[in-house]
Amino acid sequence: MSIPALTGRIAARSAGHAQNVVLGWVAALLVTFVIAGVLGGRYDAGTHLTSTSGSERAQEVIRGLGGSSLDDAATSPGGSPNADYDVATILKVLPVIAIVLVLASGAIAGLTTLGVAAVATGVTLCLVTLLSNAWALPSFGTNLVAAVAFASSVAMSSPILARYRARRRREQFDEDALAVAGETAGHVVLLSGAATMIAVLGLFLVPATMFRSLALGTSTGVLVAILAALTLLPAILAMLGDRVEALALPFGRSEAANGRGFWAVTTRFVMRRGPKLAILVALPLLILAAAGLTARPGLSGDAPAIGVTRIVVLAENVGVPDVAQAIGRLEIALDADQAIRLVAPAVTSAKADAAVITVALPAVSDDAAAAINRMRMQIIPAAFKDSEAEVVVDGSAAGAAEFVAVVRAAMPSVLAFEVGLTLLLLVIAFRTMLLPLKSVAISLLCVAAAYGVVTAIFQYGWGASALGLSHAAHIEAPVPLLLLAIALGHSTSMHIVMLLRIHDRFEVTGNHEDAVAVGLRATSSVITATAAIAVVALGGFALGDAAVIQQLGVGVAVAIGLDATVGRVILLPSMMSRGVRLRWGVPGWLRWVHGVVSISDGRGQRA
Predict the structure, then answer these.
(1) What does pTM read for this prediction?
(2) Domain 9-73+303-401 belongs to what topology?
(3) Number of other residues whose CB lies within 10 A of the CB of residue 147
(4) 3-state SS, residue 457
């Protein structure tokens, strides 16, 4: 049976290509998704349970009509698979990154960090290219993996470089300075890297190829960054020796010695006001986070205004009376549904073992999702109650609804995994519960506030045109999980750098306020520069055209920026102003960890 004419025409192209549906009032690219077998789930329409064999048959039918699978499309949400999403973003922002590193560390030291990060990023991209044969990255994946690898490499290299330079300034021998830097800052790198790895590995819990490929790519980048910081950087420092201080900028050194600089004054001001200041600062962040609760997740990118949903009926012979009557009942019920824009009569395969009904819905909308749910739960079971035929629902609208549902369902498990293991790591590192809880709470608050900002800008359009950003009816479904993974991993790694320094100082002096002030001051340049580079490298996504990368870029930049400023300078110190003994104490059930894991260098300090 040939494909019938509608109010316009449906032109079927060769297998594997899209179909153009040309109506009097719409022209749209209709990309077919086959849900079953791709997301690993089964469609249960009452007694009509689609089996694996049925899914494969449905794929063959759809491809014969010129469709493609969800695997092809889900790897590029928010844009075409052929979109220009290579490492161009990193190249665009590379001059800004170089300037930040030079200002923070000096010319030679900054360029050393830049070189190590460039090597780590290059190695990561080579490995990811090999791994992509198994799990293809989404269209923006290469850029994301490159940015994460670059930012992670800077974050892992900076503590070692800072420790090494600090020892050199105290006129230590080269070997001793490098050994101490490796021994002390090496622990920081391993803990920070572990925190980042935990965050990105949580994406594996989402049963979709896109998230798992991104988890594999970003975790590879973090692992390479750790190895580069522990191997390549020390080798370069051994060759440079004192020359690492060449062309260093003069400002920033005197403050470390006198205790009367910006960080000392700021810390005293914050800690003396304690919880009241924390509440005052946290309120605006909570208001922003509340905006995120109104976010409507969806998919857009290059999606058409009209999305195709196809209902594939599989049977030995779809022409037999019971199946044919069921198909007729289904067409009548679909045509009566107010959310359905168009129904194409059933198309029967040459072997009469399959029939395809094409339904046009508003793409990626609440109405479309509700209509798809009605089809699966009510309309199809009612129509086929007297038939043994198998039924598969697929298509762009169904695919988008299924993808959003999968992401939503995975959020609790991903959040529990990332937060739970991060807390466990920090508890082992600090041998106490309160500090890890406060650190993770601050990180999550900054992430939630950033998601609220993304919702306000992109969904509600507040300032979108002024910033040159796109205004959409919803937030791209992958954004919240990717934002959580990237921002939580980075912020936790920076908290580890600062809190370990505070902990070591407190062990030496026993003065809580002094320990916090020294910890903030000693890590200020490292954390500020690292955060700035992460904001530039990952926030550079906002320069892209697709909604998903714009939203992710803005969200990550805001989350990391808030954590490095408000979180580190105000919230964390203000929440450490009371209960010193409890805060640094070792709970009885954790005392065994003290003999197993050591976060100190044995001298009460880290260089």
Answers:
(1) 0.76
(2) Alpha-Beta Plaits (3.30.70)
(3) 28
(4) helix
